[in-house]
Amino acid sequence: MYRFTFTFLILAITLNIICGEKHHPHLHKEVVIVDYHGPTNKHLFSLFKKAEVLEVYNSTLTSSPSHLYSLLPHLRKVHVENNTYEDVDYDTVLHGANALEEFYCINIKIPKIHLEVLRILPRLKICVVRGLNNPYPIIKDNSLNETQLEIFEFSKNGLETVEDLAFNGLSKLKELNLADNKLRSVPKEALVPLQNLEILNLAGNQIKTFTKESLPKLDKLQKLDLSRNPLTQFTIDGIGGVAPKLTTLIVTGTPLPEAELKTIKEKLNVQIIDQA
Fold first, then answer.
1. Where is the secretion signal located (predicted)?
2. In the prediction, which pLDDT does 26 show?
3. How many CB atoms neighbour CB 96 within 10 A?
4. Separation CA 69–CA 48 (nearest Å)
């Protein structure tokens, strides 16, 4: 791993040149940027053409050229966290990241970002977008339909609506996390394509009603998290018919009466978690 700020990197390269030492930043496979303030440019990124992992923390990027990640043809993981992007169009930055498999975008201040841009990443398997500074109220139809996603988290983003075809094409998805948003429901139709889904996390939303009719047939679903929702109507008799492999149901922090939970536990062959 090569951990640096841009200022330190430029100084290090300069000193190596002065001292006659060989410096090969292009050989480093993991690049970590911490506490940097300023622009990024193609020349500097081209120094790390062998990089497979890029992490940026606690930084402010004032500008960035388009297709920046295309300079890193081996890049398979990007993790950006606690950063501010000022005059940066992150949609275009991602263009050309053809080897990218994992993308983590956490607590980011950015003018705009569109989920649809993920469709240009043909190998993307894991995507975590959490804590955007601007609310992202809707996941539109076909936003992710050309990806190979297996894990998708979109939490703490002010999400209010999921359109019926939002997850169209995500037949490989195993984990969907939409926790801590403002969802009142997720359309049954939106979940139909997710035939390999094992974990569904809807915790911390505004869901009041949930029944077995809320789910399509999901043969591989094992864990359902509805904790911290204001559930008032909760009827899941016969849920085994739509989710035969369901083993864990989490309802911690809901207003469901203890007597009702006891009845559910007696009826279902499922672990009910109702206490933190």
1. 1-20
2. 54
3. 19
4. 11
